[in-house]
């Protein structure tokens, strides 16, 4: 279980990016974090594994307050948190298998990783994970030979190779087309459910969040202004999170996108006839 207590972050010279955020994510819960640009979503996610240092507050994962840990303990604690990134963060010139195994780097002695000699158990686990994300046949391909969706699958397998207790997912579909986005989101949610793995997913796309998340937290100007089930995310709630102007612009954007997709479909059908 993750519990954030009074978490705040102020960057030098700026307004508070995060103000007094208190939030509990129980085992197995998949929580979507939404909010307008600059609301503090990335800051919140990064304060949890201290890629960003919180100014005040506690980050309890199990019995441990990660905000209090020194360097060595923090390195050990970070193994417990898997992270999936928007831009995948793969090592492009390494193979898919090597990228997945790099999720074990926090566990294997340096000389083994340096010589790329991972224990047999880790290699077997990496194959199982590649199978689970549908990339068994790509194990020996170089990462730079993969599509965006395939790269994100490698990113998911790498995060799972850590055997994490918590998954932090930062805009996993922002670089993907709508169909691949849904496939990736489905894969992440299925895997979390299979493993009882709690996850916080920073997600721009409101319909995607409503379709796949169990719980949605809305941030605005660094504060939680909504916390509820996807079904409770009414027009009023969305206006509270995004403000009337932005929310109407987003809806118009969605409508334009849907119209463009329908138009492309009509043209394809006309060609096929
Ligand atoms: N390294 C930094 N230094 C100074 N200010 C920062 C830094 N990172 C973020 N901020 C500021 O903190 C606030 C929150 O930013 P953050 O990136 O967490 O928002 P976000 O909700 O993730 O936005 P987006 O959806 O655009 O990624 C913004 O005002 C931003 O300008």
Write the layout of secondary structure elements.
Elements: E1 2-10, E2 16-25, E3 30-34, H1 41-48, E4 56-61, E5 64-65, H2 71-78, E6 81-84, H3 96-101, H4 110-114, H5 120-132, H6 148-161, E7 166-170, H7 178-195, E8 199-202, H8 206-212, E9 215-220, E10 223-228, H9 235-242, H10 244-272
Parallel strand pairs: 3-8, 3-9, 6-7, 7-8
Antiparallel strand pairs: 1-2, 1-4, 4-5, 9-10
Bound molecules: adenosine-5'-triphosphate.
Adenosine-5'-triphosphate is lined by residues 11, 14, 17, 35, 37-43.
Overview of the structural elements:
With 273 residues, this protein is an alpha/beta fold. Helices cover 42% and strands 21% of the residues. It is built from ten helices and ten strands. The protein has helices spanning 41-48, 71-78, 96-101, 110-114, 120-132, 148-161, 178-195, 206-212, 235-242, 244-272; strands spanning 2-10, 16-25, 30-34, 56-61, 64-65, 81-84, 166-170, 199-202, 215-220, 223-228. Strands 6-7-8-3-9-10 form a six-stranded mixed β-sheet, sandwiched between helices. Strands 2-1-4-5 form a four-stranded antiparallel β-sheet. The longest helix has 29 residues, at 244-272. Adenosine-5'-triphosphate (ATP) binds next to helix 1.
């Amino acid at each position: 279980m993750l519990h954030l207590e009074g978490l705040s972050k102020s960057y030098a010279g700026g307004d508070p990016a995060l103000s007094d955020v208190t939030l509990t994510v129980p085992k197995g819960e998949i929580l979507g974090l939404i909010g307008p640009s600059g609301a503090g979503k990335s800051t919140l996610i990064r304060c949890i594994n201290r890629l960003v240092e919180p100014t005040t507050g506690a980050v309890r994962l199990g019995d441990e307050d990660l905000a209090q840990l020194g360097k060595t303990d923090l390195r050990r604690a970070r193994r417990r948190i898997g992270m999936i990134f928007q831009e995948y963060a793969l090592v492009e010139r390494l193979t898919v298998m090597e990228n997945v195994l790099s999720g074990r780097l926090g566990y294997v002695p340096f000389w083994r990783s340096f010589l790329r000699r991972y224990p047999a158990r880790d290699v077997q686990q990496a194959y199982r994970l590649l199978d689970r994300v549908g990339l068994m046949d790509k194990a020996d391909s170089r990462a730079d030979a993969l599509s965006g969706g395939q790269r994100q699958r490698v990113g998911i397998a790498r995060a799972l190779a850590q055997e994490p207790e918590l998954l932090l997912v930062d805009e996993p579909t922002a670089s993907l087309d709508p169909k691949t986005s849904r496939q990736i989101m489905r894969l992440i949610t299925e895997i979390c459910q299979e493993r009882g793995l709690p996850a916080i997913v920073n997600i721009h796309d409101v319909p995607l969040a409503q379709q796949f998340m169990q719980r949605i937290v809305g941030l605005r100007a660094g504060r939680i202004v909504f916390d509820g089930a996807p079904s409770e995310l009414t027009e009023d709630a969305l206006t509270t999170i995004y403000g009337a102007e932005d929310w109407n612009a987003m809806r118009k954007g969605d409508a334009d996108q849907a119209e463009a997709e329908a138009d492309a479909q009509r043209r394809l059908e006309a060609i096929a006839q």
